[in-house]
Write a structure and sequence with these properties.
Aminopeptidase; Alpha-Beta Plaits; 2 domains; 4-stranded antiparallel sheet; 17 strands; 33% helix; elongated
Length: 385
C-alpha cells in the first residue's frame, strides 16, 4: 500500500506548519484545532477536549472490530537551533521529538482511510496531548477514552533516530521503561564555613549519597533486570563562606519490570536515610511513581509486524529489537487495552540528530512510510483474514 502524492504533500505542509507553531503539554489548542478541522473535512466524527486538549476522530464503516491509532501532539521547552525556514516561531519551545511528524502521519492515514469504501468496522484516530512527562495518555484514559471509544486493540508509533529510514521495529513485552522521579532533601545545621564543627554539613552527606545511589543498580539489582538510576540535580548553598542547613538531590529511575521498580524505590529511601544519619543529618524523600513500562501484547505485535511487512518502503522489519530505557505514556493506554508500540527508522544517509536535541528535525522521508503503515494496519484489522 502507498499513500497518494497529494496526501504526502499535505503531510509535509501540516508537519512544517506544526513545527513552526509548537505547543507545550496541555497547551496544544492550535494543534488540536488543526487536527479537528482536517478530520471533520474528510468525514470523521470528531471529539475534542478529551484529556483537556486531546482529539479523537472516528470513522465508522458498519459492524466489525474497532482499532485505535494514536499520535502525540506536544512539543518540548527547548530553544530551537536548526535554522530551518519553518523553525519554531515560539521562543524556547520546539518540536524536538518529532510529534509534529507523528500528527502529520496519522492525519495522512486518516485521509487515506476516509477514501476507502471496503472497510468493515471502526477506526479511532487518537491525538494525545502532553506525552512529555505530563501524562496526557493517563488524562485521556481517565477522561473516558476507551469507555467512549472502545477499541479491540490500540497502536502507537514513534520516529526513531538510530534506525535507518525503511526500518520498522517492535517486540513482544516491555519496549519502553517505567519513569519514576525522586527528590531527597538532606537537612543539616547551618554554620560558618570556617567552623564546620559547630554545624551539620548537608553537602558532605549529599556528596556521599550521590555516589551511594549509583550502587543501587550496580550492586543491589541483578544484571538480568534492566534498570537505570540517574541523579540529575544537586542544589545547596548560596555563599562561599556558609555551610547551608539543607541540600536537595533530584533524579529519575527507569525499569522494565515492576518488581525491580518497587525494590529500587525502597532502596533509595533506605540509602538516603542511612547516609544522612551517618553524618548526623536527616533525609526527607519524595518518591513519585510515574509512567508504567510500555508493554506490548503478542497478538497486536504480530499484526503490526504483518502490516509493516506489507509496506513496500519498509525494507527491514525487526521483531526482537532491544527495549529502550526511555519512557512513554502510551503505556497508560496499553494498561487498559491490548496493543503494540513500535519505532520507525528516521536516519538518512548519515546518523540523525538525537531526539530532544536543539538541532533535531523530523525526517520528512518518514511521512509516507508511517502513514502507509497506519493505513495498512487499519485496513488489515478491519478485514480479518
Amino acid at each position: 500500500m502507498s499513500i497518494a502524492a497529494d496526501i504526502v504533500e499535505r503531510m509535509v505542509a501540516w508537519r512544517h506548519d506544526l513545527h513552526a507553531h509548537p505547543e507545550l503539554a496541555f497547551q496544544e489548542t492550535r494543534t488540536a484545532d488543526l487536527v479537528a478541522r482536517e478530520l471533520a473535512a474528510c468525514g470523521y466524527t470528531v471529539k475534542t477536549g478529551l484529556g483537556r486538549t486531546g482529539v479523537v476522530g472516528t470513522l465508522s464503516r458498519g459492524a466489525g472490530p474497532a482499532i485505535g491509532l494514536r499520535a502525540d501532539m506536544d512539543a518540548l521547552p527547548i530553544r530551537e537551533a536548526t535554522g530551518l525556514p519553518y523553525a519554531s516561531t515560539t521562543p524556547g519551545v520546539m518540536h524536538a521529538c518529532g510529534h509534529d511528524g507523528h500528527v502529520a502521519m496519522l492525519l495522512g492515514a486518516a485521509r487515506h482511510l476516509a477514501g476507502r469504501d471496503d472497510l468493515a468496522g471502526t477506526v479511532h484516530v487518537i491525538f494525545q496531548p502532553a506525552e512529555e512527562c505530563e501524562g496526557g495518555g493517563r488524562a485521556m484514559v481517565e477522561d473516558g477514552l476507551f469507555r467512549d471509544f472502545p477499541c479491540d486493540a490500540v497502536f502507537g508509533l514513534h520516529n526513531w533516530p538510530g534506525l535507518p529510514v525503511g526500518t520498522f521495529a517492535t517486540r513482544v513485552g516491555p519496549i519502553m521503561a517505567s519513569l519514576d522521579t525522586f527528590e531527597i532533601t538532606i537537612h543539616g545545621y547551618g554554620t560558618h564555613a570556617a567552623m564546620p564543627e559547630r554545624g551539620t554539613d548537608p553537602l558532605v552527606a549529599t556528596a556521599e549519597l550521590v555516589l551511594a545511589l549509583q550502587t543501587v543498580v550496580s550492586r543491589r539489582i541483578s544484571p538480568t533486570e534492566p534498570a537505570v538510576l540517574s541523579v540529575t540535580q544537586i542544589h545547596g548553598g548560596e555563599a562561599y563562606n556558609v555551610i547551608p542547613d539543607r541540600a536537595v538531590i533530584r533524579g529519575t529511575v527507569r525499569c522494565l519490570g515492576e518488581a525491580t521498580r518497587q525494590r529500587i524505590a525502597g532502596l533509595v529511601e533506605a540509602l538516603a536515610k542511612g547516609v544522612a544519619a551517618t553524618h548526623g543529618a536527616t533525609a526527607e524523600i519524595t518518591y513519585t511513581i510515574g509512567y508504567p513500562a510500555t508493554i506490548n501484547a503478542a497478538g497486536p505485535v504480530r499484526l503490526a509486524l504483518d502490516a509493516a511487512g506489507a509496506v513496500g518502503g519498509l525494507t527491514e522489519v525487526k521483531d526482537e529489537i532491544a527495549p529502550s530505557m526511555g519512557s512513554e505514556d502510551f503505556s497508560y493506554m496499553l494498561g487498559e487495552c491490548p496493543g503494540a508500540y513500535a519505532w520507525i527508522g528516521a536516519d538518512g544517509a548519515e546518523p540523525g540528530v538525537p531526539l530532544h536535541n536543539p538541532a533535531y528535525d523530523f525526517n520528512d522521508a518518514v511521512l509516507p512510510l508511517g502513514a502507509a503503515y497506519w493505513a495498512t494496519l487499519a485496513t488489515r484489522f478491519l478485514h480479518p483474514r
